[in-house]
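Ticket #4471: complex job returned nothing on first submit. Input attached below:
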Amino acid sequence: MPDGTLIITRSDRPRWRDNIIIGIMAAAAGVAILVTLGIVLSLVFETIIFFEKVSITNFLFGLEWSPQTAIRADQVGAEGSFGVIPLINGTLLISAIAMAVATPLGLTSAIYLSEYASKRARDWVKPALEILAGIPTVVYGFFAALTVAPFIRMTGGQFGLEVASESALAAGMVMGIMIVPLISSLSDDVINAVPQSLRDASLGMGATHSETIRKVVMPAALPGIAGSLLLATSRAIGETMIVLMAAGLAAKMSLNPLDAVTTITVQIVALLTGDQEFDSAKTLSAFALGLLLFILTLIMNVIALRIVKKYREQYD
Amino acid sequence: MINFTQDAGFGLRGRNKSEKRFQWAGRGAIAISLAFLVIMFFSIISTGLGALQQSQIAVTVDLSAEEVDPENVGDTSFNSLLKKSLRNAFPEVESRKDKKRLYGLVSTEAAFEIERQITQDPSLLGGPQTLWVTASDDADLYISGQVDTDLPEKQRRVSDAEIALLDKLMASGAARETFNKGFFTSGDSREPEIAGILSALMGSFLTLLVCFVLSFPLGIGAAIYLEEFAPKNRMSDLIEVNINNLAAVPSIVFGLLGLAIFLGYLGLPRSTPLVGGMVLALMTLPTIIIASRAALRSVPPSFKEAALALGATPVQAVFHHVVPVAMPGMLTGAIVGMAQALGETAPLLMIGMVAFIVDVPTSVLEPATALPVQIFLWADAPERAFTEKTAAAIIVLLTFLILMNLIAILLRRKLETRF
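Support reply: We reran it on our side without changes. The output follows.
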């Protein structure tokens, strides 16, 4: 062998060993699919059994929710009623309040941070807002029940308003604050993705900075922002602990934010904690609610993720 | 001719004003969100600090041989001994009702505390001894100054008669506040003054252990496959979309999955850290996969190419040269995922980790509860003293979360200085 020649040989490691390693890792990636499959199967199976006991139309269109276990077998209304409309009403009411709080706060913070704030301010404020997203929801729930709800009740009382001690407003407001960082960080990404040339053109035509943002940047970022709001709404609908601790248990058809309403998630917990028979309509209805919640949030997430992704690519 | 200056200047003052308003709206929004954060922290910390202090009352107990048999300490009724010494301290208390009130000043655990002190230090026996015992939750409220005496008697938890007794104790120095060690060293209790978080803390630890052992290998395995080896086909796309959606599924749905499959189908033991950890592992999997993929992507392709050019197989190139460099990033993702799992409550409620647990769990197969669930349980308890405990437990939970996130940030810094 002449001096200075480097001989490179392919590693003599057998090929099949590599293939096994790759196979194991592929299986790990497959677990993600299995989890989704597991969720769908477990929810669907229990829901099918539930619909053998309670008709699907009663469930989807019923206006009364009062699940109960019969004391006597032949009792009137032994199975209770399982109309899901009041729960959807409550869920949407609280989510709407949360979004009414979170949208203006989240969007204006995102605009300020991406368009006006100095890098220094950004470096401090962004992580501070992210803290809000990292706090466990049980902590928000405690704060809502202990501090916010009595405060709203007291304030309402001074204006002569009847406020329930577990008002939708308290739960919704606190949930709104929780969602602010989600909206602001997603919208921030979207606003940053708008090409600088659009801004320069508008500013060059003599528009002020805020006019540029309102009339040029925002319309260009609108689909992405819509996606982030959709994602935030889905989060609000699926949130459990805040509503469990600060909202009520009684199912009620009401659009009054000062009333106590209940949500799908609260009812799932209420139905499944404590003593339970596994195949009673009451227990099974929790899975039907879970399936409804899963489908509802899945549709919103799929649409939102698709919009956000497509939008990012558009300007890349 | 058009006068440009005039036209361009038209309404400029108003437009500049609206520009200012717009900027202030942005600052205001940030201020409101951060103010909420500050108020929440302040409210919780100021409520919770009280639970770190505990009130104790000194009782002079007769431990002479007539009362306590030194050979057979366990046979003594420390309860009646304690009542007797309380009666001796307050000879003026006579009626049955007043006596009951007097006994209510000390915790129901107080008799056990005396017994424990004697077992630890038998030299106490032989004569009268002044011992400190835990005050009851209501007495604690008064001693720590949380009772508003201006309120009418009916509206407060502590009656005028009790206040008179406590005032006498405090004046004679027989009441004190000490650091509440028991809060960190004992399990849950129905009595707020002796309830602690150790059992919940241990439950959380065991649950996270299971969660980490399952989700970390699975997560980085999946991430390495998807990033380095997966063929670009529809199956990979499906997995990708699937992982993103899984990250947005409401946590309670994972709880339902655990209930139906782990408990119902596989028949694993209910309320245990094993099942809790499995459910949380499924939840944190997407977080770990997404973070690990980002870490792998940040490794310059030249590392892998150089290894391949020198004859390494693709698996060797990835495992010897890409994964070690991406490791801090992957660990950061895992820690963030664990922090998420530590704060998660709803799925644990579904699989029955809401039990009342006094004993500290020692294995993943024993019934346990977790710190956030303990917070939820205490927040629901009617006794006012539990509010304080709840806030204190929240402080402990937040401390752990802050520590975990700090570690994650430090690791990320280390990664950033790499290239």
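The first strand of chain B starts at residue 53 and ends at 62. Closing as resolved unless it happens again.
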